[in-house]
Automatic annotation (TrEMBL):
Protein name per the record: Aldehyde dehydrogenase domain-containing protein
PANTHER family (alphabetical): ALDEHYDE DEHYDROGENASE-RELATED (PTHR11699)
InterPro entries listed in its UniProt record: Ald_DH/histidinol_DH (IPR016161), Ald_DH_C (IPR016163), Ald_DH_CS_CYS (IPR016160), Ald_DH_N (IPR016162), Aldehyde_DH_dom (IPR015590)
Keywords associated with the record: Oxidoreductase
Listed GO MF terms: oxidoreductase activity, acting on the aldehyde or oxo group of donors, NAD or NADP as acceptor
Stretches assigned to the Aldehyde dehydrogenase domain: 63-314
Similarity annotation: Belongs to the aldehyde dehydrogenase family.
Length: 324
């Protein structure tokens, strides 16, 4: 995540200032001493986390790029406007849908939906945390998704074979457990997981909820943890409407064999990225960013470069005027 904006600054030959979150001190040590470019008088500040240092909102910086919560992103945008109207790129929260149609192989669908949510312990802004499954394959999907989650290996992430490590800190650990308790107290069905693991560390059981409704907190809020919420749907028009019924729009995934169905979803889903029969596939040339409260602007690809440029019009007459 840090290298993408750093690469943009290198291409544009501008000074790069990184302000990271305290939770990623390991990366801070890794980047210590690295310099991107100091030749251009423009200074840019990249802010990660939810407590950015307020000194970056002076008149020196001419561009801000923020990755973090939607609430802090709103504050960053307001302060940037008050300082010197500096442009801002925001990459914020997500609550992305992963839609499983009835025409694909169920085993592949289960594995892909599992990866879409549980990748990086669920600590991923574009995680496919809302799994919509067609009613014809819903029951079979639930059983297999439950079995897959229960087989997930949790432990030391540096050990071979481990699929899921701990949460990043106590605050996030407790937040996830609160959402799980809210899900258990609702009418949703807890299929597996739903608790912490052991008494040491911030380990949480891979959790699957079925019969989830759109008005539940686990369906609307970004949990940022290993909690898969599964919904049932009947037809394409219905599920597109339900998938869009969120304040976020960072990404979406669709599993189908039918190209016409895939095209219908790509046109209808309000998300910055739509993955068809895959998930979390990135490329340096593919722009990444969100709709709605998931942010503004794009990282990567040619579209991202415009975030760091100003347009200048230069007019020169073909013939010298008489007064020159």
């Amino acid at each position: 995540m840090l290298m993408v904006p750093a690469a943009h600054r290198h291409v544009m030959d501008v000074r790069f200032h990184l302000t990271d979150a305290e939770q990623i001190n390991y990366l801070k040590r890794f980047f210590k001493g690295e310099r991107i470019s100091n030749q251009c008088p423009i200074q840019l500040a990249d802010i990660y986390g939810d407590q950015p240092p307020w000194e970056i909102f002076g008149a020196t910086e001419e561009k801000l790029a923020f990755t973090g919560s939607t609430e802090t992103g709103q504050t960053v945008l307001q302060l940037a406007a008050r300082s010197n109207l500096k442009p801002v790129t925001l990459e914020l929260r997500g609550k992305s849908p992963f839609i499983v149609c009835e025409d694909g192989g169920i085993d592949h669908a289960v594995e892909l939906a599992h990866f879409a949510l549980f990748f990086n312990q669920g600590q991923c802004c574009c995680a496919g945390s809302r799994t919509y499954v067609h009613e014809r394959v819903y029951d079979e999907f639930i059983e297999k998704a439950k079995a897959r989650a229960m087989k997930r290996v949790v432990g030391d992430p540096f050990k071979k074979g481990v699929e899921q490590g701990p949460k990043i800190d106590s605050e996030q650990f407790q937040k996830i457990l609160r959402y799980i308790r809210a899900g258990r107290d609702s009418s949703a069905t807890l299929e597996c997981g739903g608790d912490k693991i052991g008494s040491k560390g911030y380990f949480i059981q891979p959790t699957v909820f079925s019969n989830v409704k759109e008005d539940m907190s686990i369906a609307q809020d970004e949990i940022f943890g290993p909690v898969q919420c599964v919904f049932k749907f009947k037809d394409i028009g219905e599920v597109i409407k339900r998938a869009n019924n969120t304040r976020y729009g960072l990404a979406a995934g669709v599993f189908t064999k039918n190209i016409d169905t895939a095209n219908t979803f790509t046109r209808g889903l309000r998300a910055g990225t739509v993955w068809i029969n895959c998930y979390d596939v990135f490329d340096a040339g593919i722009p990444f960013g969100g709709y709605k409260m998931s942010g503004m602007g794009r990282e990567k690809g040619i579209y991202s470069l415009s975030n760091y440029l100003q347009v200048k019009a230069v007019v020169t007459p073909l013939r010298s005027p008489a007064w020159i």
